[in-house]
Amino acid sequence: MKLWLLALPLLLAACVAGPSGNPSPPQPAKSVELDRYLGRWYEVARYDMRFEKGCEGVTAEYSTRPDGLIRVLNTCHQGAVDGPVKTSEGKARVVDTATNAKLKVSFFGPFWGDYWVMDRADDYSWAIVGEGSGKYLWLLTRKLPTDLEREALTARAKALGYDTAMLRPTKHF
């Protein structure tokens, strides 16, 4: 048991270790109206992480839950855009009620991770999502992204200080 207690901090550190795509991520640029943010988003590109390895055709859907939290339903096609569907359901809660741009998300147990809406279109047609360490980044659109939208979002992420060479484009039908 003592060995397990000694190993726990190392295991937790290993979970957060890894390259940072933005060593000094900015604060979110705009407030978020949660009702307008809810709904389906298509992933344009991401920093590739273990939990999304091999995912294509990725979408995220946000809706309100009876308990006041936000339901998060992530869907991906494993291996190819027509591959088997994999879903992950989680929950989110707002932690910065002044802007609603900083949330915590949990997909299992008592473990919560940061989810910051770093920037968004005025009409909520696109969003850039990251968090305080700069290790995670997602570029999202409301409809299937065009090449022009992908380029514009990538340029915006670069302007926010992110290493866009680390972005992995997401394939869709």
Quick structural overview:
The chain has helices at 2-16, 34-37, 147-159; strands spanning 39-47, 55-64, 70-78, 85-94, 102-108, 111-120, 126-130, 138-141, 167-169. With 173 residues, it is of the alpha+beta class.
Going by helix content, strand content and strand pairing, the class is alpha+beta
Shape: globular
Strands across the major sheet, in which order?
A: 1-2-3-4-5-6-7-8
CATH architecture: Beta Barrel
Alpha carbon gap, first and last residue = 50 Å
Q: Within the CATH hierarchy, at the fold level, what is the topology?
A: Lipocalin
Kindly report the average pLDDT value: 88
State the helix count: 3
The level of helicity is 10-25%
Helix/strand order: HHEEEEEEEEHE
Number of domains: 1
Give a verbal description of the structure.
This protein has a single domain (29-169), classed as Beta Barrel (Lipocalin). It contains three helices and nine strands, in the order ααββββββββαβ. It starts with a helix and ends with a strand. It is of the alpha+beta class. The radius of gyration is 16 Å and the shape is globular. It has helices spanning 2-16, 34-37, 147-159, and strands at residues 39-47, 55-64, 70-78, 85-94, 102-108, 111-120, 126-130, 138-141, 167-169. β6 and β7 (126-130) form a beta hairpin. The longest helix is centred in the first third of the chain and has 15 residues, at 2-16. Strands 1-2-3-4-5-6-7-8 form an eight-stranded antiparallel β-barrel.
